[in-house]
Amino acid sequence: MGDTIHGNKYGGDHVMGDKIVHHAGRGEPGRGEPEPPAVILLMSANPSRNEPLRLDEERRQIDHALVHAQARSLVEVRTADAVRLGDLQNALLRHRPAIAHFSGHGTESSGIVVTDDRGHPRLVPPAALSELIRILQGGLRCVFLNACYTEEQARAIAEHVPCVGMHRRVLDQTAIRFAAGFYQGVAHGRTIQEAFDLGRNALRIHGHADGDAPRLLAAAGSADRPVLRAR
Length: 231
What we know:
Low-confidence stretches: 1-17, 23-29
Oligomer: single chain
Shape: globular
Distance between the termini: 35 Å
Number of helices: 6
């Protein structure tokens, strides 16, 4: 699996290994042992036979939303690029994310698309992905499938944790803007439902014709809690 970072700094934040750590301001009074930051794991796949996606721009917008919403010391952004079938278990076990985010392609009947060892497209069996989330759901507060036609996959995952999916084809810019709005809400300590609503509202503000594509699937009450501690 190709875990990546961008340079050794992002804004005033330092990169440690494969983690982008958003630091709190210096000199803040301590209140005992601080809680570890929540991990947001950004996974992506863009197989060579599929339409190219602006994955770097999506990641930049997410980083921007988290930094400028003052989520400092509350979150670590980790990345896993060119995800293959065999990487999914390892990524979730290794990073233990609060949010598992997948950017890439989806198919109308078969879920998300990753790559095989040769870089060719491979479908992730929807039942197997849902089972993986069930097994590793401890600490996982939300799954975000930022890919076309992922509503049914999201519905299966939502039996275990809240999941965002797309109920139809969605333009790249729409997916990026929605993700930025969602993570701005997360960074400000809003609930998963409120963060989702903020993402949808951003699409309405900018007049996206496909702004109805995002869907939040969740058991009753499970999306009514924040991912991050409010400051």
